[in-house]
Amino acid sequence: MKERIEDWSAKAAAVFAALFVVYCLTAPPVMMSIVRQRGSASFPAVYQPILRVIESDFNGPVLWYFNHVWHSNFIVIGEESSPPLVIAAYALAAFALAGAVAFPFLRRRLRRTRP
């Protein structure tokens, strides 16, 4: 019973992490299409967390992703650079999400290889 709960929770965490990654990576094109359709930058409440991160993290990785990868041209007035600690926190979060997605698959593979 304990193994079933662990398997279920690992799979649920993997699905949640994968959905969160998809949400973050698809936010720029969805938000850009909303601006094109409405003609203004009023976004649904679902995307408010992303906007808060962009506004609070001047010149951080999320703003870089929006501006340099998707060319959305967000202009944020304020500080010019984020501290290295913010970059390290994002790297750690990305590593944790990738680990959460990969954990159930790695665990299944390890179980098969054990004698």
Write up this protein:
The longest helix is centred in the N-terminal third of the chain and has 37 residues, at 2-38. The protein is built from 4 helices and no strands. With 115 residues, it is mainly alpha-helical. The chain has one domain (2-113). The protein has helices spanning 2-38, 48-56, 61-69, 84-113.
Which secondary-structure class do the elements indicate? mainly alpha
What level of helicity do the residues show?
over 70%
Number of helices: 4
Average pLDDT number = 80
Low confidence ranges: none
- Radius of gyration, CA atoms, in whole angstroms: 18 Å
How big a fraction of the residues is strand? under 5%
How far apart the termini lie comes to: 22 Å
Helix/strand order, N-terminal first: HHHH
The shape, in one word, is elongated
How would you briefly describe this protein structure?
This protein is mainly α.
